[in-house]
Amino acid sequence: MSTIKRRLFALFQAHPGVFLSGEEAAKELECSRAAIWKHVKELQSEGFAIEAVNRKGYRLVSVPEAMTENSLLAGMETTVFGQFVHLYEALPSTQTRLLELVQQGAPEGTIVLTNEQTSGRGRLQRAWHGGKNKNIAMSVLVKPNLPLHIAPQLTLLMAVAVADALEAVTDVSCQIKWPNDVHMSTKKVAGILTETISEPDRVIAAIIGIGINVNEPEDAFPEDIRNKATSLVSQTGKEFSRMAVVQHICSSFERLYSAYRVEGFDPIRLLWEARAETIGKRVSVQGVDGVVTGLSTNGSLKVKAENGIEHQVYTTDIGH
Hints:
Elements: H1 3-14, H2 22-29, H3 33-45, E1 49-53, E2 57-62, H4 69-74, E3 84-88, H5 94-103, E4 110-114, E5 136-142, E6 146-147, H6 152-170, E7 175-177, E8 181-184, E9 187-199, E10 202-212, H7 232-236, H8 242-263, H9 266-275, E11 282-285, E12 288-295, E13 301-305, E14 310-313
Parallel strand pairs: 3-4
Antiparallel strand pairs: 1-2, 4-5, 5-10, 6-10, 7-8, 8-9, 9-10, 11-12, 12-13, 13-14
Helix pairs in contact: 2-3, 6-8, 6-9
């Protein structure tokens, strides 16, 4: 969305149901009335219902239901995350595309989405399955300027944000499995992958990828994951607006990330632990058998062995 078009839409949002004359809008946006007319026509062609009445001006009636860059922006209740949207019909990987945009100077908060991801990857280069126009494949750009050793905190923060957002949309309880999965009814509904750009010991930028099974039923999944994965439609029996889910995630992440920048990791740690499937459970990880006691301040998993020694575990799978 161009700068003028974005500001024109914001102007409509600031005056719900009110007619704005072309002259008023042009004065506010410091452009010509012809430019206002042009951008109104463009918005209309994109599915925005805008009423035009002689001697009254224009007013926004409704926004399109289909997920487009502009309709996503229209419903974003954020100031940073999701304010720059790149939506593609198909991509090999949203992570790879967002990395390209970072190299072109993309600002913090930029998100990349695709209706079909053909070579999606998860942690440890595992493939991510997803049907066209059924699920969410998105990547979010963060520029935290954090010490490299606490970079895992970003994945944990996003896991809490996704869990909060999915609960708000579905009213179904979500749990988090170490280190990057969100579960519903003990099955994986979402996964998170964080890739960092650092120099020398600080994270300059992080690309956080999110894959969510939304409207694809479990019986459509590959046979080898049907007993491990689920979707919002399988959990609730109804389909959901992918656009609304994305908007909820951006809002949830922005709220938690803002708190994290001010208050540090401890509030996020407590929220993560409250949702963790593994707290208090016996696990086997990195050659250690013990009980999970929580998260450390740097974001690693704490496992207390039988001999009483507490170990810190970084990104890896755990066996129950």
